[in-house]
Each structure stands twice: as C-alpha cells, then as structure tokens.
Amino acid sequence: MKIAIAGGTGFVGKALTSYLEKQGHDVYILTRKARPSTNDRIHYIEWLTPESQPEKYISSLDAFINLAGESINSGRWTEKRKQRIMNSRLSATKAVLELMTKLEHKPEVLINASAIGIYGTSWNEVFTESSTKTVNDFLARTVIAWEEEAKKAEQLGVRTVFTRFGIILGKEEGALPRIVLPYKLFIGGTVGSGDQWLSWVHIKDVVRSIEFILNTQNISGAVNITAPHPTKMKEFGQTVAKVLHRPHWLPVPDFALRLLLGEMSILVLEGQQVLPEKLQKLGFNFSFPYLEEALYDILQS
C-alpha cells in the first residue's frame, strides 16, 4: 500500500512508520521540513508551508492516517494551551481533508486519531464503541469536535475510522516513562485512591491494530484501541514495581496532584474502563492483552 501519515514524527507515528515499512508498505510522511530518506520505502513530503504541493507526490494513495495534534500531557492546561490543543487537531484534520479533496484518486480509507476521553470518566461504567453517554469536560469536547471534522471525509467517499486511543505504553515516550521514574528512584506508590481505572495499550498493539483496520474493509466509525483487560491504578503501580523489582509504598495523594497539575490531573485521578469491543468482534488478537506481560516486554527488553 501507499500510505500517507500526518503526524508521522510523533510517538505513535514513528512506531507506525517503522512497522508499516517492515511490512512492505510505502510510507509518505507529511512534514513542514522535508528531508532526504535513507529508506526507499519512507518518504518525507513538505506540507503546510506556502510553497508546499504535497498532492504532486501522493497522487494515488491507498490510505491516509492523521495523527497530528499537540500533546495533551506535556504541560499544565491553561486556557491558552487548551485552545492550542483543540486548534492543532482541528486545523490538521481540515488540512488533511483539503489535501484529499485535491487528489484525483481518493484514498480508500482515512484513519483519524482520536481518544477515549470522549467517554468521560467513571468509577464503575464500562465503555465500548456503542456507549452514548455525553459529557462536557475539555477532553470530551475536544474529541467530539475532532471526530466531527474528520467525519467530513465520508462526503468524499472515503471510509473513515476514528481510532480512540487509550493510554499508550512505550519505553521511551508516552506516559509510561513518567510513571516508571518514581519506582526507579524507590519512591513509587499508589496515585490517588488507586481505585480509578486505567485503560492502557501496548504501542506494538497500537500499530498492529492500525494495520488491521487498513486491511479490514468493513471497519468504520469509532474503534477503541485499548487492551482488553484494563486495570486499576493501584494494580498498575504494583505491577510496575514487580516488573522492576522495586517497592510500591509511597502514595501520591489526590490534593497534591490537583495542586501540581490543575485540570490536567483528570488524566491520572479519574479513570475509565474502556473495552475494544469492535476489534475483538472482528477477530483482532492482541499480542499483549494483560498488563504484566506488556510491562515485561517494554521494561525488560
């Protein structure tokens, strides 16, 4: 396949590019700064600059993957930063749609990044793609607007999928290095009450699930990309401690995190139990369905 990726230099984008190239696909990474590639299957295409004309280089795509957007967990959520987070997702998605409009041969599928934040938080509810609960917090509003923009691709006759990512676990990037650091310093412990749910997924299953979506013609709409066995925060910390052979003893109270992180503390203090119902019904098999084996693969490799 010929696959274009917007946001191909980020955490998921880099892992996905490497994986797809090894599977024999040609990957076109849209970037503001095009550069030569040492790999014949990976191409960097200038995008979002006044001079750029990416449509000349990707005229016959099979698929478009949009992962672009400012990270939600790289700084305190001031009102200005929340607006940047929202705008970065909407503007990138609009740019993807504009580019696809220019293409004479439309891609068969658009896979647009999304997030389980759309479901809101809950101590006891179980969320699947069919959940209809609506909430009005910042994350939910952002995801709803993001998906509504991406859905316009359907008007071009393009199969459209919203990949609602959970907490993605990887060795060098994402949330895990920050979670692991206190344990490496022998000061790890339960965050908040410990009873909040954490819906996680191994980065390897993220890229495999995206390839599965590319190859499965009857998948459209929302797809939860989370491991089938979410865990509570206390168990997550205890498992990290077990894998690293470190103690799990020093708790981090709610008030301290709320003081430190402000509204962003919702990411760690208020969880959600999200299941990948659609992927499982269609036959996708997770390489790492359970947390302990996922952490061993990441932290001991």
Automatic annotation (TrEMBL):
Q: Which InterPro entries match?
A: DUF1731 (IPR013549), Epimerase_deHydtase (IPR001509), NAD(P)-bd_dom_sf (IPR036291), SDR39U1 (IPR010099)
Q: What organism is listed for this UniProt entry?
A: [Anoxybacillus] calidus
Query: Pfam families attached here?
Result: DUF1731 (PF08338), Epimerase (PF01370)
Q: Which family does it belong to?
A: Belongs to the NAD(P)-dependent epimerase/dehydratase family. SDR39U1 subfamily.
**Start and end residues of each NAD-dependent epimerase/dehydratase domain:** 3-225
Q: Which residues form the DUF1731 domain?
A: 252-298
The name on file for this protein is TIGR01777 family protein
